[in-house]
Q: What sequence folds into this?
């Protein structure tokens, strides 16, 4: 190793370095720019910095491609998975920064702190998906979490926001503690904290006779608890509704895509080597040997998560809370893909997540505009929106049918591909025309997913009914400024435009 | 259970240490003379004479100072180990020290920004 290589080592994390520099810059600017101008100045600097980092991820410098593989002694790894999710996280951060500038909720506070916390959380998420070492993994997860706790409690004088921050912190602290305990088990079993090292040891050991699966399953479940907290997976979901409702809406949008995405990215990072083996699909329900437990575990979690999210969402009257339960349900759909241990299912999950990213951010932007203009996120505030501003209502309509999975929207394509993966796993498990337990298992899973999609239509319809078939007391026309209208239109156009999904499919296929 | 065998000495130390502590306390309570007096019963305050209740309300500023101190305390630990590795014989390559210096420099810059921030925010002000 030469001196030049030492410096080249840093190139793969160039986007993260840029992000860190922008965080420092925003904090400094916040101190010295007068309060009146700090919102615009800090916002623009943060936005520009994120875009530059995103640009570096999309078009990496030549040296980065040469260094693809491992860096920092194998702590950081650069592959299709990390590239894809880093793109998504940085894009999510840039969009959240615009949300912040367009929302009145945080207007009375210094923006520099808020923006640097969002960038800090993004930094944690980006490093998390690139980390190939459990220590790095945990550190970056904590970076993400600590920033999110403060962000959730950012509106200090509001009771709900403070409650959200406290609940998030207490839950998160326990979840992280449990996860570290699980990591210590992995270390104890294999003697390494290198993620691929751990997985290799486990895979070799599991193929040997007399392999005791219990400690491995225990450690997996413990680590899954930490990640499940981030993903809002049942039974670690109970923080989500309170936090989503209490946090400032830009933060809610951020949590529902970047934080949840980080959970799934991390889960994919630890399970991806299993996907490549393809060996566990056929014996998913066959026996108790080896890794056959994992698909079953994920399927149970998926069914529980989507059913719980959808059923509880039926009774909600606050749109932010409703979207929180909807995001729990979507976590369930994503987990459904996790139960098919094939490279295709990892791609389907990433694909689904991209579509979820677009439509969910769009829906939250409409909520932000409604809070700005009408003053709340209750269903009552959405009443008669179609008559007060048909463009905003139409955009919300598109996001909602997309979240349900009805064509012609991005959500439909996402669900189509995810279900296709599950059903083809069931078909490939059949022996000729004879159903095996594994194929019953996957067909059953797909049917539960379809029933859940149908249930979700009911509560998304509740918002649509409030917008179109109910009248509000105040039926004056709602005039939006060009940012509010333009952003809603852009997201709606993207949600429909993603029916042409080939670029995204190509992006995902690089995995 | 063979893989637990190397840990048996640790278990023995834990048991011995616990036994030593418990036995010492019990033995001194059983065997030792008991002549309590007012001065003997006072809480031990490292030689100071206690003059009021210990349960009083402390200004919350102490906690802020403790938090800020913690940051710089951890930083000192990091720099100490860094400094030892910096001069250690057998550096991996000629240019390594320059690299190590740059890395620590960036760390210090970030720390100074943090210090500026808390200064500017008035976290260092007592009143």
A:
């Amino acid at each position: 190793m030469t001196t030049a290589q030492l410096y080249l080592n840093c190139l793969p994390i160039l986007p993260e370095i840029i992000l860190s520099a922008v965080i420092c810059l925003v904090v400094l600017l916040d101190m010295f720019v007068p309060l009146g101008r700090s919102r615009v100045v800090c916002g623009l600097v943060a936005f520009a910095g994120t875009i530059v980092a995103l640009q570096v991820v999309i078009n990496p410098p030549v040296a980065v491609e040469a260094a693809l593989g491992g860096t920092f002694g194998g702590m950081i790894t650069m592959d299709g998975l990390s590239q894809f999710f880093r793109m998504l996280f940085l894009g999510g951060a840039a969009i959240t920064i615009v949300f912040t500038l367009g929302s009145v909720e945080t207007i009375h506070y210094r923006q520099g702190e808020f923006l640097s916390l969002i960038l800090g959380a993004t930094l944690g998420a980006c490093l998390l998906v690139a980390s190939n070492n459990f220590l790095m993994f945990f550190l970056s997860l904590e970076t993400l979490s600590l920033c999110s706790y403060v962000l959730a409690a950012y509106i200090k004088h509001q009771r709900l926001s403070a409650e959200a921050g406290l609940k998030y912190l207490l839950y998160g602290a326990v979840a992280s503690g449990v996860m570290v305990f699980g990591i210590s088990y992995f270390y104890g079993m294999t003697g390494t904290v290198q993620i691929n090292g751990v997985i290799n040891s486990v895979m070799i050991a599991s193929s040997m006779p007399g392999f005791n699966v219990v400690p491995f399953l225990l450690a997996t479940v413990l680590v899954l608890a930490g990640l499940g907290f981030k993903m809002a997976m049942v039974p670690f979901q109970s923080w989500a509704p309170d936090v989503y409702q209490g946090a400032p809406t830009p933060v809610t949008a951020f949590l529902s895509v970047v934080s949840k995405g980080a959970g799934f990215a991390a889960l994919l990072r630890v399970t991806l080597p299993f996907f490549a083996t393809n060996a566990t699909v056929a014996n998913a329900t066959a026996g108790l040997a080896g890794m056959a437990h994992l698909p079953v575990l994920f399927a149970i979690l998926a069914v529980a998560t989507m059913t719980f999210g959808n059923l509880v969402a039926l009774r909600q009257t606050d749109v932010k809370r409703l979207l929180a339960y909807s995001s729990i349900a979507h976590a369930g759909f994503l987990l459904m893909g996790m139960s098919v241990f094939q490279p295709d299912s990892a791609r389907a999950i990433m694909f689904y997540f991209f579509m979820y990213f677009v439509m969910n951010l769009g829906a939250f932007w409409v909520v932000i505009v409604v809070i700005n203009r009408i003053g709340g996120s209750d269903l009552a505030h959405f009443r008669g929106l179609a008559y007060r501003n048909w463009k905003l209502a139409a955009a919300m309509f598109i996001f909602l049918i997309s979240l349900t999975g009805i064509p012609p929207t991005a959500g439909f394509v996402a669900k189509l591909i995810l279900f296709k993966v599950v059903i083809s796993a069931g078909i490939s498990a059949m022996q000729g025309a004879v159903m095996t337990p594994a194929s019953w298992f996957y067909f059953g899973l797909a049917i539960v997913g379809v029933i859940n999609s149908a249930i979700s239509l009911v509560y998304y319809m509740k918002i649509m009914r409030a917008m179109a078939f109910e009248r509000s007391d105040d039926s004056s026309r709602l005039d939006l400024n060009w940012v509010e209208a333009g952003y809603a239109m852009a997201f709606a156009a993207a949600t429909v435009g993603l029916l042409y999904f080939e670029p995204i499919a190509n992006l995902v296929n690089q995995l | 259970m063979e893989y637990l065998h190397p840990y048996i000495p640790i278990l023995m130390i834990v048991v011995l240490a616990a036994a030593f502590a418990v036995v010492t306390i019990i033995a001194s309570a059983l065997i030792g003379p008991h002549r309590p007096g007012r001065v003997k019963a006072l809480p031990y305050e490292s030689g100071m004479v206690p003059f009021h209740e210990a349960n009083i309300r402390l200004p919350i500023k102490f906690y802020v100072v403790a938090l800020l101190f913690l940051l710089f305390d951890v930083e000192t630990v990091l720099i100490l180990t860094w400094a030892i590795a910096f001069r250690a014989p057998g550096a991996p390559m000629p240019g390594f020290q320059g690299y190590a210096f740059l890395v620590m420099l960036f760390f210090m810059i970030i720390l100074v920004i943090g210090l500026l921030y808390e200064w500017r925010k008035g976290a260092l002000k007592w009143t």
In short: Strands of chain A lie at 69-71, 76-78. DSSP finds 21 helices and two strands in chain A.
